[in-house]
Design brief:
With about 220 residues, the chain is an alpha/beta fold. The chain contains seven helices and five strands; from the N terminus they run E-H-E-H-E-H-H-E-E-H-H-H. It has two domains: about 120 residues, Toll/interleukin-1 receptor homology (TIR) domain (Rossmann fold), CATH 3.40.50.10140; about 60 residues. The chain has a five-stranded parallel sheet. Helix 6 runs antiparallel to helix 7.
Length: about 220
């Protein structure tokens, strides 16, 4: 099992190999599909290697955007909070990955002292499963390779929104059960009225919290 998993489109194999060589030159073990043995169960190997990896580097490009395999590997990496994105040709990644910042590798010649390699190295050295390293974003000088750095994932807050959604669903279920109990005369109409008021109050709080989180996520995605 390797520390780093590299996902890319076969059309970008030459660029991917340069990145792979750089990662291994940093002393990190790497898995990419050049390591796939003939006759191996491709899907099972991919899942196993992504699960074992500390970080998953996804190299976006025009052809990678249209690759179901690259998208699937990126989704798996995002779900496991291991995703590090780079971009070979400036193509806009597909949803939801275009909401996340990435490292711009256009014009990178393979030199490990050249931007954006130092930023990628910092990302790969970050704690496994932890948030991306915070790096200052700056506007490049004329003629310099443009650099976009990964910041804390704006999608991380969606887990909290989902939790609030489940809580709201729970309130709705309780209220539905209360209606059923009133119909069957198991509780009084007065008690149902108090339950309804309580449920409405909880629903308002949940909606307010969800709105706050969504606004915060939206603001982070525009950074």
């Amino acid at each position: 099992m390797a520390e780093i998993f590299l996902s890319y489109s076969r059309a970008n194999e030459a660029q991917a190999r340069t990145v792979a060589d750089g990662i291994e030159a940093e002393g990190r073990s790497l898995w990419w599909d050049r390591r796939l043995a003939a006759g191996a169960d491709y899907g099972s190997v991919i899942e196993r290697e992504i699960e074992a990896a500390d970080k998953v580097v996804v190299a976006w490009s025009a052809t990678a955007r249209d690759s179901l395999w690259v998208r699937a590997e990126a989704n798996e990496a995002l779900d496991r909070n291991k995703l590090v994105q780079i971009n070979f040709d400036g193509t806009k990644p597909p949803l939801p990955f275009n909401m996340l910042h990435f490292l711009d590798f256009r014009g990178w010649t393979g030199a490990r002292e050249q931007a954006p390699w130092p930023a990628l190295k910092r990302e790969l050295n970050g704690a496994a499963g932890g948030p991306p390293v915070e790096v200052e974003t700056r506007r490049p000088d004329p003629g310099e390779v443009p650099l976009t750095v990964v910041r804390a994932s704006p999608l991380q807050g969606f887990g909290k929104v989902a939790a609030l959604g489940w809580a709201a669903l729970g309130v709705a279920i309780v209220l539905a059960l209360a209606v059923l109990m009133v119909v069957r005369r198991l509780i009084s109409a007065e008690l149902f009225g108090w339950l309804s008021i309580g449920a409405a109050a909880v629903a308002v709080v949940l909606l307010a919290a969800s709105a706050f989180l969504l606004l915060r996520i939206s603001a982070m995605s525009r950074q």
